[in-house]
Amino acid sequence: MHPRVSLSAISTFSWSLDEDLAFYEQAGVAAIGASLAKLEAAGVEAGAQRLRDAGLRVTNLIGIGPFVLADPYQWDRQRDRVRRALDAAEAAGAECLILTTGPAGPLSWEDAADALAAALDPVLDDARARGVPMGLEHTNSLRVDVGFVHTLRDVVDLARRLGIGVCVELNACWAERNLAATFADDVDAFRIVQISDYAVGTLSTPNRLVPGDGDIPLRRLVGQLLDAGYGGVFDLELIGPRIDEEGYAEASSRAIGRVGELLASLGA
C-alpha cells in the first residue's frame, strides 16, 4: 500500500469494525480514515485500542454529523457531539477531524457562515488545546442536507476565517474553474484530499466509482496537487450502488492499487 494512500471506513459503509479490521489485515491496509459511528458502536475506547493494536495509521476521523445552522437551540447538543468526536480522535490518534458545515436551511450563504462561526467557536479552542487539527469539507451541491459550501475556493475562505484546515473532496470540485490556481494558492490549508471517481451522466449521489473507472481527470488533478506542494494523504472515500454491487473488498483493493500506482508514476 502506498504510504500516501488511506482507506476511509466510509468505503466499507455497512461493515462493522470487526469486519473492517479483518479486511485490513487480509489486504495489507496500513492507513485508514476512521468512522465515528463504527467506533461508537464498538465502544470508543475499546475500538480505538483495537485500531492501535492493529498498527493502523488513522489519517482522519469522519462522521460527526452537521450543525443545524438555522436553529441555535440545537447547537449545544451538536457541540457535545463534536466534543465526543474529539475524544474519539484523541483515543484513536487521528491526524485530523473532518466535518461538513451543516445545512443553511432558510439562511443566506453569508448568514449561514456567521452561524457556523458562532456554533463552532466554543469547541475550536478545545480542539486546538487537544492538538487535533480540523478540516472543513465542501460538498456536492445535491447534498444541501449536509452542507452549504459547494466549491473548494469558498470552503478555503470559510476555513481560514475559522482558523481551521480544509478537506479537499475531488469528487465535488474536479470541474471547478481555475482549480490549479486554487491548489497553488491554498495548499497550505489542505489537511487531507478525498479521492474517488465519477461517471458523467450519473444523476444520483452518492454514486462513486473506483479511481480510473470514471471520467474525473485524476492524473491531471493529482499532478497539480503534487506540483502545488501538497504533501499529505489521499483518502479513498468510495460509496454508492456501484461500490455495493462490486463488493467492498474488491472495490477497495482495486482503488488502493490504482491510486498507489498513480502516485508512484507521478513521483510521489
How would you explain this protein's 3D organization?
The protein has 268 residues and is α/β, with parallel strands linked by helices. The protein has one domain: Divalent-metal-dependent TIM barrel enzymes (TIM Barrel, Alpha-Beta Barrel). 47% of the residues lie in helices and 14% in strands. The protein is built from 11 helices and 8 strands. It has an 8-stranded parallel β-sheet with strand order 3-2-1-8-7-6-5-4. β1, α1 (17-27) and β2 (31-35) form a beta-alpha-beta unit. The longest helix has 22 residues, at 109-130. The chain starts with a strand and ends with a helix. The model has no long low-confidence stretch (mean pLDDT 97).
Q: How many independent structural domains?
A: 1
**Shape designation:** globular
- Summed over residues and divided by their number, the pLDDT gives a mean of 97
State the name of the first-level CATH class. Answer: Alpha Beta
Give a quick summary of the entry.
This protein is of the alpha/beta class and 268 residues long.
Outline the fold blueprint.
Blueprint: E1 5-8, H1 17-27, E2 31-35, H2 36-42, H3 44-53, E3 57-62, H4 75-92, E4 97-100, H5 109-130, E5 134-137, H6 152-162, E6 165-169, H7 170-173, H8 179-186, E7 190-195, H9 218-228, E8 234-236, H10 241-246, H11 248-265
Parallel strand pairs: 1-2, 1-8, 2-3, 4-5, 5-6, 6-7, 7-8
